[in-house]
Amino acid sequence: MAPRTLTRAAVAGLAAVALLGSAACGSGFDDSSGDATQSSGPASLQILIGSSGEAETKAVQDAAAKWAGSSGNTATVTPAQDLTQQLGQALAGGTPPDVFYVDAARFADYASVGALEPYGDKVSNPSDFYESLRTAFTYDGKLYCAPKDFSTLALQINTDLWAKAGLTDADVPTNWDQLTATAQKIKAKGQVPLALGDTRDRIGAFMVQNGGWLMSKDGKQATADTPENLAALQYVKTMLTTGLAKYPKQLDAGWSGEAFGKGKAVMTIEGNWIKGALQNDFPNIKYKVVPLPAGAKGQGTLSFTQCWGIAAKSKYKDQAIKFVEAMTSGEQQMSFAKAFGVMPSRQSVRDQYTSAFPADKPFIDGAAYAQGPVNAPKMDSVLVDLDTSLQGLTNGDPKTVLQNFDKNAKAALGAS
């Protein structure tokens, strides 16, 4: 079972973005027709979600029914078969749902064409959302939507294989030098040290740990071709070429969590979704979670998040904001965490979360030093090209990979 975040991050939205682009050039989302907000009477909210499964669907439907019952409105929650495609078609057709999940990796595409209502500051205590999550949903200086929940990356260690390699807690790596040293000890025992995903969504963490990233904070400038990013990719390449790290396909696995679950690697770098995947597919594996090793510039990880988007064309914006308010209350976020394993986006319930899920503390602690996805529109093909380059990193030139990203990103950012 592949993790839901990988599925959500998959590039399935090219057609949807094309639809958005044609809509933006045609009637446009800023068109005021059909945009009148209904101010009186009960609202009938349509809510479209990208569900990870039955547990999430039921939890959101139950929460929506509770809100509807207490507010006098109705709220119909529909799990999408393909959220990106269905949402893109609905937005382009001018008949969007009132409220819907928006992935951080898609957010800028929607915000840049006026599809989203920028309501973020109208929800109570927006500063309670982690700063890295607020940044992920800010476009042109506006917080568009309330972060729903989030995931981060951490290091998983197979404790049985760790002991088999003669390692102890003193060998748990806290920086790159220690990661290399520990990996060398594991390799010497005939085991694969690290299963590492072959895309920016895993390798990018090394850039952050070394003080780099692909884009400027405002999403306006490509910043890949820097000494910090070059050193990070050179480190990863060295791990790959010396056999200290291997991509999932080298381990006959679809993703790193599968390789880890099959005992083909002693360590892996994955998000908190791995917990459910291992419970389902590899229930007997024993492992622990620790923070990612720090780079030269300190700790760094990646965050994956979604927000509750509200359509700019919704007739029920006020009620939609009240719905989001209910969905992002601390109490409701803890209910969602217990129901389907997500981490609350509000800092005020962090202690409650770590008390309920102590083994997941490294994941939620990562919010303090996490980098969100590339926050710029029209970047799909650029990111696909980057991932293709990273998949060939063992025989590739890190400098060329970074230069190509900047060149392609500048072209995409400059396109009308």
UniProtKB/TrEMBL annotation:
GO terms for cellular component: ATP-binding cassette (ABC) transporter complex, substrate-binding subunit-containing. GO terms for biological process: maltodextrin transmembrane transport; maltose transport. InterPro entries: SBP. It comes from the Bacteria. Residues 1-23 form the signal peptide. One of its GO terms (molecular function) is maltose binding. The keyword Lipid biosynthesis does not apply. Keywords: Signal, Transport. SUPFAM superfamilies: Periplasmic binding protein-like II. PANTHER family: MALTOSE-BINDING PERIPLASMIC PROTEIN, MALTOSE_MALTODEXTRIN-BINDING PERIPLASMIC PROTEIN. Belongs to the bacterial solute-binding protein 1 family. This is Carbohydrate ABC transporter substrate-binding protein, CUT1 family. It comes from Micromonospora cremea.
